Amino acid sequence: MLSLTLINTTHAHHHQFFNPTTTTILKPLTSPSLHHPHHHHQHHSAGPRPISASLNPPPQQQRVYQPFRPPPSPLPSQFRSLDIAGRLDILANRLGPWFEYAPLIPSLFQEGFTPPSLEEVTGISGVEQNRLVVAAKVRDSLIQSKTDPDVVAAFDMGGAELLYEIRLLSAAERSAAAEFIVRNKFDARGAQDLARAMKDFPRRRGDKGWEKFEYKSPGDCLSFMYYRKSREHRNPSEQRTAALEQAMSVAETEKAKGAILEELEWKGGEGNGKEGQVQDGVRVPVVRLKMGEVAQASSVAVLPVCRVEEREREVLEAPWQCKSEGEFGLVVADKGWARWVVLPGWEPVLGLSSGGVVVAFPDARALPWKVNRWYKEEAILVVADRGRKEVVEDEGFYMVAVDADDAGGGYGLKVERGRRLKEMGVEESLGTVVLVVRPPKEEIEDRLSDDDWE
């Protein structure tokens, strides 16, 4: 023990000792233990202890924070050796095909350029910069999905605007859409309509005639869009016929063409109708409002809404004119009103320059439906034209005020067919019904057919 202490006194600060009986590293005796025997005795009575890692922490490598930098955009081989000035020259002079110089744009963004600064140097607007970059990626996806090389080549000269319009479609849909665009020689507007129709088609499941159009066919998707819009016009009317003819021109499957041809031959009851059908047809469009349809509409109509419990009083007092003014399209009415509704710019409501009014019914019993139908208790909006009050057409529909006993369900307003009003001796109504709007609904259900009116 004495020799150990002497050795420890000499090398306390330079060495550690290995104890062969415990195979543990012994802590060297510190200098305080040499000068204070009491402390020295306590240390050895406690026995050897392993060295704590915290006493001699291993050296840690210092780490410097590096912000994330995306990898450089892949550039065509002929541009990889160019400096910034060379890339700017390519863009400024449009040297080469658009899909080759388009990748230069994101590469310059990585060098610190912004869309405005790049526009100042090259003359390519920020909108066009985005269109070129996105279209180039769409073109690459067409190649990766093994689209016909001739189809891809058709977009090599000025095709960025067309490919940009199909950016939201899946890879398979893009390939089919690109082939259809080339085959039909669509412009940018046509490509945009096609992409919207293909994107919208699955959400229209349950609409009348939907099952007769093929989802995998771009032409059928576009055809169904025109087919659906045809039902927003009066039957018969030039607008309805024109929409159906447009639908027929792009339809690809025989089932779709048959559905359109059936509508073209119907024309309000003319031709060969099936036994038991109403031969005069439905002259008032009945439209199911879709979720988000107002937000997506290019034009809208704002109309005052009346309550059925107020009978004809509100219909007569509602604002007569409501129009948009100024650069911001501010809605201006000839008088104040508490309730308004915004509807997509369907042809029947856009045609109401003045006198349009909407009556909100809590259920559809105010309309001449056939009895015991599932939609009997569905809330509806009835759009009427107060500028046409005279009961003229036998098969037209008119808004009238009736006694509570005759109203069915106690309502003071009702929609009646012109023929019945004439039989009752009624010559003037509150207005001619031009449109019936049904509320949005997500679940799939049976749709209104032409023989559901009384």
TrEMBL record:
Keywords: Chaperone. Residues 28-72 are annotated as: Disordered. Residues 284-441 form the Rubisco accumulation factor 1 C-terminal domain. The keyword Ribosomal protein does not apply. GO terms for cellular component: chloroplast. Residues 35-46 have a biased composition (Basic residues). It comes from the Eukaryota. Residues 83-142 form the Rubisco accumulation factor 1 helix turn helix domain. Residues 155-264 form the Rubisco accumulation factor 1 alpha-helical domain. One of its GO terms (biological process) is ribulose bisphosphate carboxylase complex assembly. This is Rubisco accumulation factor 1.1, chloroplastic-like. It comes from Rhodamnia argentea.
